[in-house]
Amino acid sequence: MDRYDLVIVGAGAAGESAAYEARELGASVAVVERDLFGGGCPFWQCMPSKALLHAAAVHHAGGDFDWPAASAFRDWMIVREGTDYPDDASHVSALEQAGAVAIRGEARFVSHRPLRLQVSRQDEAPLDLEAGAVILAVGSHSKVPELPGLDGAHPWTNRKGTSLRELPDGVVILGGGPSGVELSQVYARYGVPVTMVHPRDRIHDREHPLSSRYLAEGLQRDGVKIRFGVRATGVRPGAGTNGRQVVELSDGSTEEGEAILLTIGRDIPFEALNLGAIGVEPEHGRVKPDAQLRLSDGVWVAGDIAGPELHTHLAHYEGEITARLALGHAASPDFSAIPRATYTDPETASVGLLVEQAAERGIDAVEFTQDLAETAKGQTAQAEGHVTIVVDRQQRVLVGAFMAGPAVSETIHEAVLAVKTATPISVLADTIHAFPTVARALGSLFVKAHKELG
Ligand SMILES: Cc1cc2nc3c(=O)[nH]c(=O)nc-3n(C[C@H](O)[C@H](O)[C@H](O)COP(=O)(O)OP(=O)(O)OC[C@H]3O[C@@H](n4cnc5c(N)ncnc54)[C@H](O)[C@@H]3O)c2cc1C
């Protein structure tokens, strides 16, 4: 039985950052990973999708980035040049250099007090571990809907969606959330017929309605066909033109594509963990940690398994915080200002609450919007979009900001800081913003809010 101060299950953004933090605090650390050290972000999620979006943007603008070059660039990015599967050696060696023990295998709980886990390893005997504390950082994977006929169509998840080497003859994307909108733009800009099926009346619908609108218009300009307000009800594998998959929709119509990409949400991989051994039972596919991200005595969660949202930057933050907490140090997670961004053209970004969400929390909030096309930035860069802020009328502080337009994933951070620190609107209004930028449009809204609210 090997004993560690901290055992981390899962070596994605959350697990890795927890391991580095714990090593800095002097703890003995084992990190157990059943697939790729590094997790989803560098290999199947953020990095390949952003690399492909960049290539597609250059290609779309008439630059020299055809599909073979884009695919090769992506393969370089995910360390898969000339092979089928990415190479995670640099992640393993970085952990080992930091003094953590990297164990390849699948972990499951055996007992709670003492905290014991067993790791199943390929071609090796199972390994028994005892831990002072455990951080579960097991991430998430694509949700697969129960649709008649879907299995036979071999649907793509984000893995195939980001790692494809051959462009398909049409893609039907189920779901218009962040992954769906990003990948739809990549495929469409490389000439693939793309249909997005989205059950609600606007895509990317957790964002501001204006962000949804500008994004939908941008995707439609690129050739993406968006089917609003319909759901897939079944699939007829290979029954379409040239053997394409036929997707049956709730309004009786059909859409066809060689591939079906699933981007309808994420599931947490609980099956292998045997959470019952620590007295935890997931409800509706999720666990509920306390405000300190503690799931059970001695067990913390970080990253996608923990929520409240699914982003690499949040996973990284939670990994560090839970490492401190698990090792008995003081720390307090603050989820008041989590940035969200999609790297489409136009980009969307946001932080905090929509005006309706603020009202639901009893905040007397008001919204101010600036059409980006009417600003100097919009005119000089021929850019469309918006900047919208949500202000607490009583406290005179920013509670939300929502944007669509060029590089808004960068601009949002002033609003992130303002929400987190409850900076008075008077201070934000007195801050000088460079001309002409999207940030200046944000600044002009601070001035407007300050004047109108008095
Ligand atoms: C297409 C796509 C694009 C995205 N782009 C962005 C982006 O640009 N920016 C952003 O912030 N976020 C993005 N995200 C979200 C982001 O990738 C995730 O939120 C982040 O990777 C979560 O990190 P994690 O450490 O929680 O999980 P993961 O990276 O999924 O790591 C969890 C690890 O745990 C391992 N594991 C699971 N169970 C066990 C077990 N029992 N034993 C051992 N190991 C186990 C898994 O193999 C996995 O490697 C994107 C997501 C998708 C799908």
Question: Explain this structure to me?
Answer:
- The longest helix has 16 residues, at 438-453.
- This protein has 3 domains: 2-43 and 88-140 and 268-326, FAD/NAD(P)-binding domain; 143-264, FAD/NAD(P)-binding domain (3-Layer(bba) Sandwich); 340-453, FAD/NAD-linked reductase, C-terminal dimerisation domain (Enolase-like, domain 1).
- 31% of the residues lie in helices and 26% in strands.
- It is globular and about 65 Å long.
- The protein has helices at residues 13-24, 40-43, 46-60, 67-77, 89-97, 158-163, 178-189, 209-221, 312-326, 355-360, 376-380, 408-421, 425-429, 438-453; strands at residues 2-9, 29-33, 101-104, 106-111, 115-121, 124-136, 141-142, 171-174, 194-198, 225-228, 232-236, 245-249, 254-257, 259-262, 266-267, 294-296, 299-301, 340-342, 347-352, 365-371, 386-392, 397-405.
- Flavin-adenine dinucleotide binds at residues 9-15, 32-36, 39-41, 45-46, 49-50, 106-107, 137-140, 158, 162, 179, 269, 272-273, 303-304, 310-313, 315.
